[in-house]
Amino acid sequence: MARSTTVKAARPVPASIPMPDSAIRLHWAYQLFVRLPRPALDWIGVAAAAWALFVGDWLGRPMDDAARIIALGFVAALYGIRTVEKTKGVA
Fold it and tell me: Are 61 and 52 in contact (CB under 8 A)?
């Protein structure tokens, strides 16, 4: 008797592409480069959004409308990509 299931087993999604071991990948500067850009972009995005939305106005140095749109568009794209990665199980 053949056993049939209606639910397909989910295959795990690899977190990263397997890369060959190299002395460069073990160096502290490389590890720092790999681990800092994403968190740095997150904090820059948070700071830009805060400045564009209320801090600049409070300090009397508001952004002009074009710069505000660019900053908020960057933050929306950054967190939109991050949301897609989280829902797909990549990040």
Answer: no
Whether residue 30 contacts residue 24, with contact meaning beta carbons closer than 8 Å, is answered with yes
The number of angstroms, rounded, from the C-alpha of 43 to the middle of its chain's C-alpha atoms is: 11
79-82, long-range: CB < 8 A, 24+ apart: 79/45
Spatial separation of the C-alpha atoms in residues 39 and 33, rounded to whole Å: 11
Report pLDDT digits (tens) over 55-81: 999 999 999 999 999 999 999 998 998
CA distance linking residue 45 with residue 57, whole number of Å = 17
For residue 50, which of 40, 38, 59, 39 has the smallest C-alpha distance? 59
